[in-house]
UniProtKB/TrEMBL annotation, chains A, B:
Transmembrane segments: none annotated. It comes from the Bacteria. InterPro entries: Isoprenoid_synthase_dom_sf, Polyprenyl_synt, Polyprenyl_synt_CS. Belongs to the FPP/GGPP synthase family. GO terms for biological process: isoprenoid biosynthetic process. One of its GO terms (molecular function) is prenyltransferase activity. This is Heptaprenyl diphosphate synthase. Coiled coil: none annotated. Keywords: Magnesium, Metal-binding, Transferase. Its cofactor is Mg(2+).
């Protein structure tokens, strides 16, 4: 995955460096294997989108400096924990071009390390954070689990509509990004109205982000993705481009036959990609992305200081532009 | 597994009924599958040892009534979450004589439901509990994960000593039971010294409980256990009876050859059980159990009210007597 251009997060650059350092520090365990897996996960990196949005939103108000780093670290640890469990569930071999924890250390240690990271996340924030904010974190983890379970249950099922898809994307991805932004606004001591607007911004960014991810499964190369092309399709995850093609392609019955296959061959996946590409599915899906991004831009509170506002607008631009 | 005799927990009988009700209430999810799996896990029951000890210890002091139920429920939810993940890790087909969640709904939904239960546990206590007590919970989850990972790493390894074993049992089981008791003493507003003694009691009970479990893997029937006999041995988990036999049996080299096998046949397991049984391993291990239980009885604070004291002593008696 591409990193965000440095200038977007210029205002929180030092914070981001501090987060990296703190992530390594907090995961330290007397058990070597726990250390090895956790360090691998931190090194695997990623965009640190959620803690960056948390920090940006906090700096849009007047934050209490002491609480920023622990919360930012907790948010990233929760994200890391969900990723390591997702990779077990998807039986993924690579993520961001590196072997997954499950590929390297097995499913069992990976499940336990995910649990360990969840617990470490709460250890990081328990003592210094207001309880209603801890509740936001625990609630959003429940929601993410529900979203993932619905996704599992509905895989290989072509009889879904866009409303099902949007609910799933909200639960899996957008609600957590919304919560990261909301927690930032709360740390920034914004008023209730602005907190709600910032949350809405995060939600829209999250929807756009996940739909883009779902598009890239069809358009990016394996090298760009750091994982195989058509990975979602192969797992029977019915994303927006597939839903569009299932409705609008002249080959929709053939596509339907592919989507329901629990064990797709490489040729099935290739043909599925072809059918989707031959429709306007990608353009249609980008249309949805842009509509969410426009909404994200529109709901930003007017009172926000201009540097933060520009950064949050730049995040919206980037999410719309990223091609891998 | 056997239930505790009713009279042991007579003093907290109403609380235990309330816990059952609250467990069903808190796991409710708009997602049917999440509900189904969670309800299955609550119904699978168990002794509710940890919340019962929490409540008993709390009632040994002067508890704030409002905080008891949420914490007791959180403790049981955390225990349930670890069990569902353990069953995935052990690839277990049955627990307490019923199909496991992974056997019925697959590993993936089970991993996610475990995560959901962890998060629900914290949702239950975040708003109404002092932060230092939340920290006790998060820290002990980290410890349990470390213990389980060490167990995985050291499976099929005959070169362990009793100190390794005790550390593992402490991390896997005793520390959480110790924390349940400690949290009870804190809810009961006991003084620092008594809190430490109660924690020590819980630790000793936990050690005795797990060593007994490890003995029962050799001595109980499959019907009594609700899972296959020799299950730990088959998974390469080197428990106290095995360690004893590896040191003292005339057939120790043969046993060593069995323990290192990653895929033991039924005959291997049967022969392993025979070799262990032909030594004093079971008697020796029960000797350790009794020594921990004696310590548990001795460390109970003198100031404890007599009904609670008698219940806690009865728990120690029961742990020593249970044969399945």
């Amino acid at each position: 995955m591409s990193k965000f251009p440095n200038n977007i997060f210029g205002i929180i650059q030092e914070d981001l460096v501090a987060i990296e350092k703190e992530l390594y520090s907090i995961i330290q365990s007397p058990v070597d294997l726990v250390n090895d897996i956790s360090v691998h996960l931190v090194q695997a990196g990623g965009k640190r989108l959620r803690p960056a949005l948390y920090l940006l939103c906090a700096r849009g108000g007047t934050p209490n400096q002491a609480e920023l780093l622990p919360m930012a670290v907790a948010i990233e640890l929760i994200h890391m924990a969900t990723l390591v469990h997702d990779d077990v569930i998807d039986n993924a071999a690579t993520r961001r071009g590196r072997p997954t924890a499950n590929a390297r250390w097995g499913n069992h240690s990976s499940v336990l390390t995910g649990d360990y990271l969840f617990a470490k996340a709460f250890s990081a924030v328990t003592l210094g954070t207001e309880k209603n904010r801890l509740k936001i974190l625990t609630d959003v983890i429940c929601t993410m689990c529900e979203g993932e379970i619905v996704q599992l249950k509905e895989s290989f099922n072509p009889d879904q509509d866009e409303a099902d898809y949007r609910l799933r994307v909200a639960q899996k991805t957008a609600d957590f990004i919304a919560a990261s932004c909301e927690l930032g606004a709360l740390s920034g001591q914004m008023d209730e109205h602005d907190v709600a607007q910032i949350r809405e911004y995060g939600y829209a960014i999250g929807m756009a982000f996940q739909i883009t991810d779902d598009i890239l499964d069809f358009t990016a190369s394996a090298e760009q993705l750091g994982k195989p092309v058509g990975n979602d399709l192969r797992q029977g995850i019915v994303t927006l481009p597939v839903l569009y093609a299932l409705k609008n392609s002249p080959y929709r019955d053939e596509l339907r036959g592919i989507v329901v296959k629990q064990a797709m061959s490489d040729n099935d996946v290739k043909r599925g990609l072809e059918i989707v590409h031959a429709t306007e599915a990608v353009e249609y899906s980008y249309g949805q992305v842009n509509s969410y991004l426009q909404h994200a831009r529109n709901v930003l509170p007017l009172a926000l200081n201009s540097t933060v506002r520009e950064s949050l607008l730049a995040v919206a631009d980037f999410v719309g532009l990223r091609k891998y």
